[in-house]
Design brief:
The chain has 859 residues and is an alpha/beta fold. Among the domains are: 163 residues, 3-Layer(aba) Sandwich (Aminopeptidase); 146 residues, Succinyl-CoA synthetase domains (Rossmann fold), CATH 3.40.50.261; 171 residues, ATP-grasp fold, B domain (D-amino Acid Aminotransferase, Chain A, domain 1, 2-Layer Sandwich); 73 residues, Dna Ligase, domain 1 (2-Layer Sandwich), CATH 3.30.1490. Helix content is 35%, strand content 25%. The strands form six sheets. It has an eight-stranded mixed sheet with strand order 1-2-3-4-5-6-8-7, sandwiched between helices. It has a seven-stranded mixed sheet with strand order 11-12-10-9-13-14-15, sandwiched between helices. It has a seven-stranded mixed sheet with strand order 17-16-19-18-20-21-22, with helices on both faces. The radius of gyration is 32 Å and the shape is flat. It holds the Pfam family ATP-grasp_5.
Length: 859
């Protein structure tokens, strides 16, 4: 363990395991404690044999004793340790923090890292003895978010912490991480002073352009330029080096040649600079990060456009964009500088501005996860926009995005994702789990509105900025051009919206307003002769109809007039306008689109957000799960596929309805199994490298007697030769619809649960739905109905039984990181329930990473 982490005040510290070389620092830390702290720690003001105690803490001969420390620079400011005494699942924990650092969150940070390390070692409970007067330590333990018990015993309190990371614990960690991250990012997004290093005299240089942008924005803090060959640039005084600046700048923006970046970064760190924005490309990442780590700085970039903040208290445009940032309430983070400029310009044209722009470039440190935490707490930001080419920590991103999206819309421009590298012998599920499928599942479940282009993004942002979300998906279209109105209605249907059935009262009221040649049924065509006042009254009539959740208007100018001016905001319902060839903002903040399809797509994004906000996120308590039995099956295995009988035991351990069967290694055993079932059976070959048994000729069905079993076994022997390891004998299952349910695990994203048509249809029809585990009940419902053929495939079946299978498979995947592929195919579904007829499972040694551990990027 060796990671960079943030304290509550934004200070960067290093957390690592301590060893014999750290004895002197551990002793210094203990000796520096005031007498009162020593008494609270050791129940004595003069702890005896302290040196021996510290030596034992870090001795390699004490494997049951683990100690980690938090270092600020080279100085140890806190240490946490545990020792396993008797029960290997339980350990005694101790904590010591420098007196001057005890209000900065050192203790909770150390306990988070120590508990994560303990869980990997099989420890699930921490115990501690704390003096009743030690309120601060008791508060540290009880505020961790773990399930805890406190038992008073005279002057001492016995504390017990369960280390399983439940929702309450993860919420507590996220709250602490957000506070620390926001404090850290203040140096980047709200600096009190900036130095532009490499501010060239030539107007064509990046440094010159960036400095001019800072001057033009009227940055509220102190501004300096570093250029050894000039006295001033853009009327800003120049200094020969960072070390010669009259004060320590809070933020340094580096526009120097790539080879000089690590040296300049090191100089900035020695001077006390808190954060860097590195514009230069082609930088040696390792050398740059060495300087960043050594001096506990935060970093944006390298290879980036820069950063900006538009709030009146900052007015910082530290980018080399051609135009200044329009002040607004949209937070934008993007890896691509070109995308940043394109989005900024499109929004600017529509009168929409940014609260912050952060171009992360190579994102060696600060990433979208950091910005999500910043914008969650930023009252100026109302909408968040992301462009991500890669995910550093998808688990944390998902949790952060879901939390932010509850209060602020989060949009993402999808980037092209390679789908190469799939295993040739992968299961049906694994071949489905492409990077784009996994990414889209993450976005959908986290409430992120995904779009595929900058125009689609700006269309959605217009709607989200200026209109409320609808209460449903029923849309009315009002136009003065019938053909365009029909196109709008068609576009709505394509986007999953539905055309509202107008009430008789609405239809009658419209008849009194429009010519007899008009169409008063949805889509409503007023004809080209109505004026703006009449069009406005028609809009009011439609808007009050309870069947209408949203309205799209389509208007074109004619020689008789232009009713566009009659389009106005509605009370509590969204309205989107269409005026051919023009994307703009109409009066009263009504978004106007250039064509009906774009308006329908934007309205669908509003409806998508409304649907997600209304979703209850509940995780059911599943009974009949024997986790220890399941762990015994998959634990300690090399990479490979489980034997059929092991698969049956594993699935049964999670309460799945498995048909079962008998593994037979010779014909006699197979015959005995068939006779024991006393019914027709299926024989499935168990052979090396035979994954898809039906395709590979490894299945014989409906065998009813000993002769048939013997003949099938001989046929398998001839077909597979030395590869044959035996046969799996199963009773024939009764009829029903066949589905596929599977899991494909991704090292970063975690397990993806997939469902769709099973049996022979699996290879014929590429129709699947996917969601990331764990599944809420709503996630399971979405998955169950998410593939195109779901309606016909599930008609007349026991849907609750299938839903429970999905939930149990997701629980299996989330609980057993060793399971990297699972295929249930077919799951036989009927009106009475469902049964797993065939399944295969691949396992591999688990890495047990902790994606929610508080630590900065290590790349």
């Amino acid at each position: 363990m060796n990671s960079r982490s943030l304290l509550i005040d934004g200070t960067v510290v290093t957390v690592r395991e301590l060893g014999p070389s750290d004895v002197s620092e551990l002793l210094r830390l203990h000796h520096s404690l005031p007498i009162e702290d020593q008494y609270l720690r050791f129940f004595s003001t003069s702890p005896r044999q302290l040196e021996d105690f510290v030596q034992r803490m870090v001795s390699p001969d004490e494997p049951q004793h683990v100690v980690i420390g938090a270092l600020h620079g080279d100085r140890l400011i806190g240490a946490a340790s545990y020792v396993v005494v008797d029960d290997p699942r339980s350990a005694e924990v101790a904590l010591v923090v420098s007196h001057t650092e005890q209000a900065h969150g050192v203790g909770t940070l150390l306990l988070e890292h120590l508990s994560s390390l303990a869980r990997r070692q099989g420890v699930h409970v921490f115990t501690a003895e704390v003096l009743t007067m030690n309120f601060r330590m008791l508060r540290v333990f009880t505020s961790m978010g773990f399930v805890w018990t406190v038992t008073p015993d005279g002057d001492v309190v016995h504390v017990e912490l369960g280390l399983d990371p439940g929702e309450y614990y993860l919420d507590a960690v996220a709250e602490r991480e957000t506070a620390a991250d926001v404090a850290s990012l203040t140096h980047v997004l709200r600096p009190g002073s900036i130095a532009v290093v490499g501010a060239g005299r030539s107007p064509d240089s990046v440094g010159n352009a960036l400095l001019r942008n800072l001057v033009a924005a009227n940055f509220t803090g102190d501004l300096y330029a570093v250029n050894p060959h000039a006295k001033s640039v853009a009327n800003v005084d120049c200094y020969a080096s960072v070390s010669e600046l009259p004060e320590v700048p809070e933020l340094a923006v580096l526009c120097v040649p790539a080879k000089a970046v690590p040296t300049v970064a090191e100089e900035c760190g020695r001077r006390g600079v808190r954060a860097l924005v590195v514009i230069s490309s082609g930088v040696d990442a390792e050398e740059l990060m060495n300087a960043v780590r050594a001096h506990d700085m935060r970093l944006v970039g390298p290879n980036c456009l820069g950063v900006s903040t538009s709030s009146p208290g900052v007015r910082m445009n530290a980018t080399f964009s051609a135009h200044s940032t329009l002040a607004g309430d949209i937070g934008l983070v993007t890896q691509s500088g070109g995308i940043a400029i394109g989005v900024q310009e499109e929004l600017r044209r529509l009168g929409l501005g940014l609260s912050n722009l952060v171009s992360t470039g190579d994102k060696l440190d600060i990433s979208s996860n950091d910005l999500l935490m910043w914008w969650e707490q930023d009252p100026q930001t109302r909408i968040v926009v992301l462009y991500l080419e890669s995910f550093g920590n998808p688990h944390k991103f998902s949790r952060l995005a879901r939390r932010v999206a509850r209060h602020k819309p989060v949009l993402a421009i999808r980037s092209a994702t390679s789908e190469a590298g799939q295993r040739a012998a992968a299961s049906h599920t694994a071949s489905t789990a492409t990077p784009s499928v996994t990414r889209d599942a993450l976005f959908r479940q986290a409430g992120v509105i995904a779009v595929d282009s900058v125009p689609e993004l700006t269309d959605a942002v217009m709607a989200l900025s200026w209109q409320p979300v609808p209460s449903g998906r029923s849309v009315a279209v009002l136009s003065n051009a019938g053909g365009l109105g029909v196109l709008a209605a068609d576009a709505c249907e394509r986007e999953g919206l539905k055309m509202a059935e107008l009430s008789a009262d609405t239809v009658e009221a419209l008849r009194t307003l429009v010519p007899v040649t008009a169409s008063v049924h949805n889509p409503v065509d007023t004809t080209a002769v109505v004026d703006e006042a009449t069009f406005a009254r028609c809009l009011d009539v439609i808007a009050v109809d309870p069947a209408v959740d949203a309205v799209i208007t389509v208007t074109v100018p004619t020689a008789l007039g232009d009713p566009t001016a009659g389009v106005h905001r509605l009370n509590g319902k969204p309205i989107l306008a269409v005026r051919t060839g023009q994307t703009e903002r109409l009066a009263d903040n009504v978004p106007c689109y250039a064509e009906p399809a774009r308006a329908a797509a934007a309205l669908a994004r509003l409806a998508e957000r409304a649907d997600w906000l209304a979703r209850p996120r509940e995780f059911p308590e599943l009974d009949r799960i024997d986790l220890p039995a399941a762990q015994a099956i998959v634990g300690g295995r090399e990479d490979g596929w489980l034997a059929p009988d092991e698969v049956v035991k594993l699935l049964k351990a999670f309460g799945l309805p498995v048909l079962g069967g008998t593994l037979a290694t010779n014909a006699e055993h197979a015959i005995a199994a068939q006779q024991a079932y006393d019914s027709p059976v299926a024989l499935k070959a168990v052979a090396d490298d035979l994954l898809h048994k039906s395709k590979g000729g490894g299945v014989e069905l409906g065998i009813a007697d000993a002769g048939g079993v013997a003949a099938a076994f001989r046929a398998f022997q001839q077909r597979f030769g030395d590869r044959l390891r035996g046969v799996f004998v199963q009773p024939m299952a009764s009829g029903g619809r066949e589905l596929l349910v599977g899991v494909a695990a991704d090292e970063k994203f975690g397990p993806l649960v997939v469902t769709g048509l099973g049996g022979v249809d699996t290879d014929l029809v590429n129709d699947r739905a996917a969601a990331l585990a764990p599944l809420s009940t709503v996630d399971a419902d979405d998955l169950l109905h998410g593939f195109r053929a779901a309606g016909s495939a599930l008609a007349g079946t026991n849907e609750p039984a299938v839903r429970e299978v999905l939930l149990r498979v997701a629980e299996l995947a989330a609980s057993l990181p060793e399971v990297v592929e699972l295929d249930i195919n077919p799951l036989l579904v009927s009106d009475t329930g469902c049964v797993v007829v065939d399944a295969r499972v691949r396992v591999t040694p688990a890495s047990h990473n902790d994606p929610f551990l508080r630590q900065l990027r290590t790349s």
